[in-house]
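fold-stage: in
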Amino acid sequence: MWSYILKRVLLMIPTLLGVLLITFVVVQFVPGGPIEQYLAEARAVPGGGGEAGALAYRGAQGVDRKRLEEIKALYGFDKPAHERFLQMLGQFMRFDLGKSFFQNKDVWTLIVEKLPVSISLGMWTFLLSYGVAVPLGVAKAVRSGTRFDLVTTLLVLVGYAIPGFVLGVALLVIFGGQLQWFPLRGLTSDNWEDLSWGARIVDYLWHITLPVTAMVLGSFAVTTMLTKNAFLEEIRKQYVLTARAKGLGERQVLWKHVFRNALIPIVTGFPAAFVGAFFTGALLIETLFSLDGLGLLSYESVIRRDYPVVLGTLYLFTLIGLVTKLISDLCYVWVDPRVKFD
C-alpha cells in the first residue's frame, strides 16, 4: 500500500510539470498579452495582433523604447521564456503563487477573497446532491419497475437535460422578475450588516436558493442512477439470497449487507465531489446571479491575460485534483478490504 502511495505521489510531479509547461507555452502565443493591454488602457489604443507585432506597432505610434523596456521589466517579460518558467516553478515549490498583474494583490489573497462565494454554492450543491440523490437511488432500486421508479427517472432525466444556466435564466425571470419572490443578484442584501443573526441566516438562504437550485438539479441524475444501479447489482447477488434464506429482515439485508458493497462506486467519487464543491467555480451561474466567485475570477484572468492568476490557480487546483484522485482510489480499500493495489 505504502509503495503504491509513494509511486502515485512521485507521478504527481511530472503531471504537474506537464500541465504547467503546456499552459505556459500556450499563453506565450496568445495575442493581446498584459503589455499590450497595459499600453491600450494607458493610450486608449485598441488591442491587436501578437506581442511582438503589437509592441512594434505601438513603438511606431511614439512609445518611448526605454519606457517600453520598463513595462516589460514590470511584468517580467525582460527575461527569456525558459528563465521565467523556471522562476515560476521555484515560486510554486514554495507555494508562492505570485501577484496579479492588474489587481495589485497576491493570487492567494484573490483566491481567499473569492472562495466564500464558491464555498457557499459548492457546499449546498454537494450536500443537497448527495443528501437527496443517494436515498432516492436506494428507493428506486428497492421499487425498481414500479410507477415511483418510472416517474422519478423521468423527472431526474428532465432535470439533467436542462442546462444549469438555462434553468437559472428561467428561475430568474419567473421567481426573481415576474413573481419577485427571490432577489436577482448577490449572496446578501445591502443592509446585511445591520440585521440580527437570525435575519442574516434567512437573508442568506433567501439569496442562495435560486443559484443552488440551478446547480443542483443537473447533478441529481448521475448520482441517483449510479446509486440505483449499484444497489440493483448487489441485490441480485447470491449472498443476498442467502441472507434472506437465513431469515434476516429486508431492512437488515439492505442496510447491513447490500449498502456497504453498493457504496463502492459512490464513495470513490465522494472525495472529488467534496473538494470540487469548495474549490471549483460555476462561471455561468456566478455571472448570471452576479456572484463574485472563483469561476468569475478564472474567466476574467484569462480574458485580461493575467498570467500569474491563470497559472497560480491552475497549479493549485491541479495539485488538489491529483491528491483528491489518490484519496478516491484509496477509498476502494477503505470500503472493500478485498481490493489490493499490489
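fold-stage: in (second)
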Amino acid sequence: MDWFDGLLKPIMVVVAWIMVQFHALFTAIGLDPEGGAAWSLSIVGLVIVIRILLIPLFFRQIKASRGMQLLAPEMQAIQKKYKGKTDPASREAMSRETMALYREHGTNPFASCLPILLQSPIFFALFRVLIELPRIAAGTYPPIGPMTPELAAQAEAATIFGAPLSGTFMQAGDNWHIRVVTVVLIIAMSATTFLTQRQLTMKNMPPAALQGPMAQQQKVLLYVLPLIFAFSGVNFPIGVLIYWTTTNLWSMGQQFYTIRRMPAPGSQAEIAMKERKARKAKSHGVIEEAAAPVIIEEKPRGQREQPKRKDRNKPRPGIDQVKDTPAPPADGDSDGPSTPAPGAPTKPKK
C-alpha cells in the first residue's frame, strides 16, 4: 500500500462499507450476489447516500452562485474601473474592493465549488477500491474494511452487459464489451455534465450575469469540461463511470427542482415560474387584479401668487377710517334732506 492509499484509507473503508451494505440489501430482495445489477445498484446507493449528506452544501452552493450572479454588474464596474491598470497598487486596490464586495453580499466564489471538492476524495477512494478488487480477491492486497476477498471476488466477477465493473477502456484487451460500455458511459457522463451546466447558466441567470469576463469563462467551461471528462474517462473503471454519471443525473434533477421552485431574480426561470402561477390561478378561476395605475394630477401653472406681508392686512389709524367712511350722496341723488358734514359751510336759505 503506497502513501496515496494510506491517505485515502479511511474514506476507502467508508466507501466499501456503504457498497457492501447496499449489496447485502439487494441480495436480500432477490438479486444475484454475483450479478452486475446488485453491485451496480450498490454504487448508485453510494451516490444517493453521499448526495444526501451534501444537501446542505448544495444549498450553500446555490446561494453562492445566486450571490455571484446578483453582484455581476458591480464586479463589471470594478473591472472597468481598473481596466488597463497593471501596476501593483491598482491590482491590490482591485482585489481589496472585490473582497469587500464579496463580504457585503455574503457570498464567495469558492463556496460554489465545495460539493465538487468534497466529492473528489470519495471519487478517488471508489477508484482505488474498484481498481484493487482483483488483488483483494487474490489475497495480495489487504481487505478494505468489510470488503473481504470473498466479496471482492463476487464484485470482480460481476459484469454489466458483459463488462466487469473494474474494467477500463485502456486495459480492455480483447474484451470489446468493456470498450462499448465505457464509450456509452463516457457519452452519458459528458452529456449530463453539459446539460447540468447549461441548465444552471442559461435558465437561472439574469441577463446582466450573462455578460462580462466571468460569463465568458462559464461559457468556455460549459464546452471544455465535457471534453476533459471524455478524454480522461478512458482511464476510469466502469464502476467509477457509473458513479459519475449517476452523480450528474442527481445534480441535474436537484438543480431542476431548485431552479423551478427558487429561481434567481430576473432570470428566465423566474419569468417561467410567474407564468405558471398565472396560468394556475386562471385555471382555478382566480383573476389577479392588476395594480391600479398611479394618476398624478397636475395643477395649471399660472402666475405665482406673491407673498403678502402680515402688516398689510392690519388697519392703519386715520387713513383706513377715512377710507371706510361712506361718501355723502350728491345733490339731487337723494329724496330726503342732506345733512352737511361737520365743519362744512352752510348755504344761505333763499
